[in-house]
Amino acid sequence: MSRSLSYERLIHASPEQVFDAFTSPAGQRELYGQDDPGWIVESICDLRVGGTWSISFGPAPGQLYHHHNVFEEIDRPHRLRMSTTEIRLDGAPLVFDVEVTFAARGEATLMTMTQSGFPTDALRDEHAIGVPTTFDNLERVLTGSPP
Hints:
Radius of gyration: 15 Å
Number of domains: 1
Oligomer: single chain
CATH topology: Alpha-D-Glucose-1,6-Bisphosphate, Chain A, domain 4
CATH class: Alpha Beta
């Protein structure tokens, strides 16, 4: 059984602005950032089909999650699709798919992120906790508002 998670947000910026912020080095760092002192985010992105986006994040060097994404589709500024392998704190891999769409809604963008292929409800539900924060952080990058 495949489990999925979908989340959407209306962001007051154009699809080009939202897409570019999502894929920029600053935007990528913000996506996984926390306001906790010492929180670590390392992000390296090769934005092309077949390219990779590697992110390591967590509270300390010995407590980092590692995400390795491979871009399968890039349709700027409308859609990204990637395969993700997450290496969890216990070293176990978790593989799932991610699709992000950016749809114009007047002068705003409806951004939708769908993650699919979770093997258990618990793993899907764990990711549901972090996705809204990701959208909050991206909006902060676009508006320049403080945390």
